[in-house]
Amino acid sequence: MPLPLYAVSWLLSGLVGTTPASVATPTVHDNPDGDAFFGETHIHTAYSFDAFLGGARLDPDGAYRFARGEEVEVSGQRFRLRRPLDWAAVTDHAEYLGEMETILQPDAPGHNDPTARELRNLQTMEEREKWFLDFARRNRSGKPEHLPFWQGPASTAASWRRSVAASERHNRPGEFSTLIGYEWTLAPGGANLHRNVFFRTGEVPGSVMSALDLSNEEKLWGWMASLENQGMRVLAIPHNSNASKGQMFPDLTAAGNPLDAGYARTRARFEPLIEMMQVKGNSEVHRAFWGNDEFAGFENADSIEQFSGRTFRRGDFVRAGVIRGLQLQQQLGTNPFKYGFAGGTDSHNGTTGNTAEDNFMAGSHGAADGTVALRRTANVEGWMAARDSNPGALTGVWASSNRREAIWDAMKRKETFATSGTRLRVRVFAGYDLPADLATQPGMVKQAIARGAVPMGADLPAPKAGQAPQLLVWARKDPDGANLDRIQIIKGWIDAAGRPQEKIIDVVWAGDRRPGADGKLPAVGSTVDLTRATYTNTIGAPVLAGLWRDPAFDPRQNALYYVRVLEIPTPRWSTYDAVRSGLPLIKNVTATVQERGWSSPIWFSARR
Q1: Which residue of 182, 186, 354, 484 sits 20 to 30 Å from the alpha carbon of 449, by its own alpha carbon?
Q2: Exposed, middle or buried by CB within 10 Å (0-12, 13-18, 19+), for 111?
Q3: Overall average pLDDT of the 566-578 stretch
């Protein structure tokens, strides 16, 4: 799809995104073995209309300052990240970016429009909810539409320029990197089909295309292809598959036709990652559909089903989606759902990467959950009960350096892992000729690569006769967090009858526990004191590592392997709230969590 004329004219006059000459660039050190860098892929500021309605007043500059460790004020409270992030991207909704320019900028056309003035002066929850319902009606209809005071494409372009300029101002290669991005927010009938879009460099279009311009994801990919034809590099990350009403991993194209090889190739080309978790729940699995997974009850956000006609389906969850991709690969020759894993917050406060359970003091959606009382009793309008939310997730990348391009490249090749907000590190390699003690050897990464192993996000080569995949797994605790319970491998495959299958394997764990007669590993235990909201690291292990060989490998079957790392139990944010406020724990809400990390899969494709 060609760019609109106003964007083309701006491109001809020079691409946005140059680093100011006055900013000194730190020395950037490259590590060919890769380092883990933690970042945020999903944050909204006052330039997102729904966030503004909720009371967000931090702009993109404020969101980046918060990510870098500066103190900010949100919901009447001043607080900061205890540890700055390594990188971040502001992803305001493209829908109504122009309207936000009009509302927020005194010199913008239409600034004194009566409706714009009304929006600037909202006072009560009733007023905010009235406008939110209008926003939801417009954005979730079959034909999304602008607000009545929209001043046209030039206002959208101006707002986009502000976001890009903020990203460039805060980009410090080697110290703190920014990715330029935005959110494309398609929600037909309330089905969440949103994508966050990220550019590799400062070469970006003059404006962005929203769901008001591009009515389905296939049109979005077409626009992304047109940008690539102009020399830009761009990728997208879908999110909230748990609320997609059966549409995130579809059976049909937007036109209602069966999926074909062209669709599969295009989707795989532009969407290397999917968001595993955010404030609106964990999208890996749900306990209602994975009764055999004892850890499937983690942050399920059940009350999502009470809003916007959403009903959970097994096929909406990431594990089901990526395994189904193996099936489609057999049919189409290409896997359309070949996703690595990412995590974000989706905070609508501008509080980038604020994922610590004990620092969730301002919630995630402004006036909806900005106090302890609201988090216990109120709803995040249109989404869920506030008590069902969580602080969100982070994306870890294994990159050669902390540079925008290196981080984007790691995302593109899927050498990523998601965490539920903790900064544990997880690394995985797979090969066929790895020594049994490799996990304990110095130079583990170099040795694995030298022996032909591939990292998370990659494809295993064809084995020799009699060989089976070996997975080298390694995890280290968050330096400021909880010890580790265990490392699990989740294997998915397509059996001889063409049916999807999966298995969970406990590979390495802390302590001297042994699996019982049912094959289950005993629980690690708990040190949590619910009366004080504390825990100790007297159980678990700071590092876990091991090597596992697949004893049931069949080279005739498509398969994938990903790793899930579990921490020992720790207090949930709602427990910290209760103890700080002298209140009882919330009834029927879990008081502890086992934070976790998920590696991107490694795939094996049968040779036919």
Answers
A1: 484
A2: middle
A3: 98
